[in-house]
Specification:
The complex is a heterodimer of chains A (219) and B (200). Chain A is an alpha+beta fold. Chain A has 5 helices and 10 strands. Chain A starts with a helix and ends in a 24-residue tail after the last strand. Classes of the chains: A alpha+beta (219), B mainly alpha (200).
Chain lengths: 219, 200
């Protein structure tokens, strides 16, 4: 055996496997992510939650003082407390969460309020076309068209996996739009503006990401 | 005392170590939920991570260009060569070793491969964010597996270099540059023999 080829072969083989991983690594890792218990998921590549934020610190909203305002193209602006939101009809779904940067969390249970129920009191005007979700993490915002927001699996979530959202996941309320990449699912929602046009561009869209962020069909 | 590592080898080692630790610290803040929550300031941390990457690679190239390239090439040649003694050594048999023992060779081969893969995957993470045609599926996955692999290597490396009684004298070689002759004879017999032949 050529002694030198052995080491060089191992070295090049490792580099080659890593380069192939750029294209196939996530799929190969998927099974590992599903097999391990959730505390371990935090360190398994591409599985488990990663906490992305844009500010100096995460917004820590006081549940007692929290208010969600619905304004814009509505019959009457409405302000909800957290207790008000919990008193609205609740819905539950299990879905996968996909980040545009390449990680996913599977079988996430969300509970919250569907947008149709959320807007019942405010009354969306016929001229309304889009929703702008404004985060308490200034200046983060993003939009959904009214049609997208009324999809069966879109909601304003209050609970994650059976417990109230934690601060890193957007306590007390966040958008969930599981078929779109996570940047559409605005955390720490403090205001929803109903807009009669489609012109508003969200935080990440201003930085080059697609407006219609369908998983697998955008960016 | 016997000369073990020259200025170029030591500079290369410490430039890589410093760059790695700077990128590991900032990378973990970006990666681990508890640290992301604690530190936030994602954009700042990311910029420091990227700056560290640029400084790391520039410094490595400078050390290579300004340093003793012949010596580095000889080292790499030795590291790539896994002879019969090395293969036995890896199977747990005590065999005389050269300038690097087989474990050090495996560590160096993996570290070099990881460095290249860190650089390539990191570059595409950066580029993919700006031009989504380069946002490949597994880029982040590779970067993250490399992190876990490197930390495992680092833990073993630190244990042998700082704690393990019979091997920790090696630390003197990569800091001061020389080691005790009796220690070298015990751990790197073939290398010491070769040095003596060269000086005869």
């Amino acid at each position: 055996m050529n002694d030198r080829l052995l080491g060089r072969g191992a070295f090049l083989g490792l580099v080659g496997a890593g380069l192939a991983g750029l294209f196939y690594g996530r799929d190969a890792t998927k099974l590992v992510g599903k097999a391990v218990p959730s505390p371990v998921k935090a360190i398994v590549p591409s599985s488990g939650w990663r906490i992305y934020s844009i500010g100096r610190e995460l917004p820590r909203l006081d549940p007692k003082a929290y208010r969600l305002t619905i304004t814009g193209a509505v019959a009457q602006p409405v302000t909800y407390s957290l207790a008000d939101l919990r008193a609205l009809p609740q819905t539950t779904q299990v879905s996968d969460f996909h980040c545009v940067t390449g990680w996913s969390v599977y079988d996430v249970t969300w509970q919250g309020v569907k947008f149709r129920d959320l807007f019942a009191e405010a009354g969306v005007k016929p001229s309304a076309k889009a929703l702008r979700f404004v985060s308490a993490e200034v200046p983060y915002d993003d939009t959904l068209t009214l049609g997208q927001a009324y999809a069966a699996d879109a909601m304003l979530a209050l609970d994650l996996d059976g417990k109230p959202l934690s601060v890193p996941h957007g306590f007390p309320a966040r958008v969930v739009m599981p078929r779109m990449y996570g940047y559409k699912s605005v955390k720490w929602v403090s205001r929803i503006e109903v807009e009669p046009h489609l012109e508003t561009v969200g935080y990440w869209e201003q930085r080059g990401y697609d407006e219609d962020a369908w998983v697998g069909a955008s960016n | 005392m016997i000369r073990r590592f020259g200025p170029t080898e030591r500079a290369l080692h410490w430039v890589h170590a410093t760059g790695f630790l700077a990128m590991l610290a900032t990378g973990l803040v970006l990666y681990l939920p508890v640290l992301s929550e604690l530190v936030a300031r994602r954009n700042l941390v990311k910029n420091i991570h990227l700056l560290a990457a640029v400084l790391w690679i520039v410094a490595l190239v400078l050390v290579f260009l300004a340093g003793d390239r012949r010596r580095l090439r000889e080292d790499w040649r030795e590291i790539e060569t896994l002879d019969a003694d090395d293969r036995d050594w890896l199977r747990g048999r005590k065999k005389p070793q050269g300038k690097f023992n087989a474990g050090q060779k495996v560590n160096a081969l993996m570290t070099a491969a990881f460095a290249i893969l860190f650089l390539v995957s990191g570059f595409f993470l950066w580029l993919g964010e700006r031009d989504h045609r380069f946002l490949f599926d597994g880029t982040g996955t590779v970067h993250e597996w490399l992190t876990l692999g490197s930390v495992a290597l680092l833990v073993g490396h630190l244990y042998l270099a700082v704690i393990h009684p019979s091997t920790r004298h090696a630390l003197r070689g990569i800091t001061v540059g020389n080691v005790r002759e009796d220690w070298a004879r015990e751990h790197h017999a073939k290398w010491v023999d070769k040095q003596e032949h060269l000086s005869d």
